Amino acid sequence: MEIAYFNGKFLPKDEIKISPDDRGFLFADGIYEVMKWYEGFFYDKESHLARMKRGLREIRINWPEEDTFPIFANELINRNRLSDSQALIYLQVTRGVAPRTHSFPDPEVNPTIYAFVKEFRSTGIVPGSGVKVMLKEDIRWSRCDIKSVALLANILSFQEAHEKGFNECIFVRNGMITEGSRSNIFFVIDGTLYTHPESEHILSGVTRKNILRIAKEAGITAKEEPLPEKKLGIIHEAFITNTSAEVTPVIAINKLTVGNGMPGPVTMLIHKSFNAGIIALKG
Ligand code: PMP
After folding, report:
1. Collapsing DSSP states into helix, strand and coil, what is residue 184?
2. Which of 77, 96, 200, 254 could form a disulfide with 109 if both were Cys (CB 3.0 to 4.6 A apart)?
3. What's 131-282's CATH class?
4. Which residue out of 42, 169, 203 has the highest number of ligand 1 atoms within 8 Å of its CB and is therefore the one to mutate?
């Protein structure tokens, strides 16, 4: 039986009832967070917790027990017998239940807290393989730094990519490549790594941050600079990152083959170092 967390309680998932007046349902008025469990620990849970807290502050949701997230996350892993597996935890916090009106509930109501875990193992990089991505105008709002549950623009863009046979949609805003619909993107030009700087146009990915650290440790120069779409012709490698899939090589962007159509050496080195870091954390 799948056990989920709902407003302080551990319950069978199918017994959880969310009010039709929940502002998450009515307005997508909330944030979410996803962390990965690696057979014994959540990878960089401090950064996930910090991003969650920042998101709550930015959208002015007050959750006094916000520091309990890692604690009930662990408990969910245990109760679902996933301690020895790899798994993802999904957390959602909404502004709570109140009659529908745009202004915040007054008096304030308790936020709605919902979390579930599911077993998930990334496939890693299959030798010689990679994904194809599609470019599209960034139709999202101007606060992509908030991990908002309002993902309609991401969903429509990803679905279009999916229907056209691509694995991800990469956004372009004012001629600059920002990020994917569910990932950050990195490019390699002459051995130097490039990724969009932190700003309101990208989500500050926890994986992105760790890849920048890993690159530095490996002596790879990394520049947080946006890549203009028109410079795509000069890139040697590209990869996307997120919590679930970690590091995924990109071998084609629209009709452009990246490098020789195979994951490049810098991508492979970073992927290897990321995995070595996980193994080291397992001790
Ligand atoms: N950008 C977007 C739009 C995303 O949805 C995600 C995945 N949550 C990321 C970047 C990557 O973030 P992280 O590495 O923290 O999973």
Report:
1. strand
2. 96
3. alpha beta
4. 203
**Tens digit of pLDDT for each residue in 63-121?**
999 999 999 999 999 999 999 999 999 999 999 999 999 999 999 999 999 999 999 98
Residue 206 Cβ contacting ligand 1 at under 6 Å:
yes
Residue 60, number of CB atoms within 10 A of its CB:
8
CATH assignment of 3-119, given 3.20.20.140, 3.30.470.10, 3.10.580.10, 2.40.160.20?
Answer: 3.30.470.10
Extents of the domains making up the chain: 3-119, 131-282
- Name the pTM for this structure: 0.97
Give ∠ CA 9-11-12 in degrees, rounded to 5. Answer: 170
- Residue minimizing CA distance to atom 3 of ligand 1: 182
Would you state the structure tokens that stand for residue 86, as one six-digit string?
């790899």
Residue with tokens 């949609």: 169
Nearest CA to 178 among 204, 153, 216? 204
- Which residues have C-beta within 8 Å of that of residue 213, sequence separation ≥ 6? none
- Residue 241 beta carbon below 6 angstroms from any ligand 1 atom: yes
Phi, psi of 206 (to 5 degrees): -70, -40
CA of 43 to the centre of ligand 1 (A): 14
Task: Please name the residue that has the structure tokens 């120069």.
Answer: 221
Q: Is the CB of 211 under 6 A from ligand 1?
A: no
Cα distance between residue 59 and residue 245, in whole Å: 28
Q: How many CA atoms lie within 13 A of 124 on its CB side?
A: 9
Return the ligand 1 atom nearest residue 209 CA: 14
| Residue 182 Cβ contacting ligand 1 at under 6 Å | yes
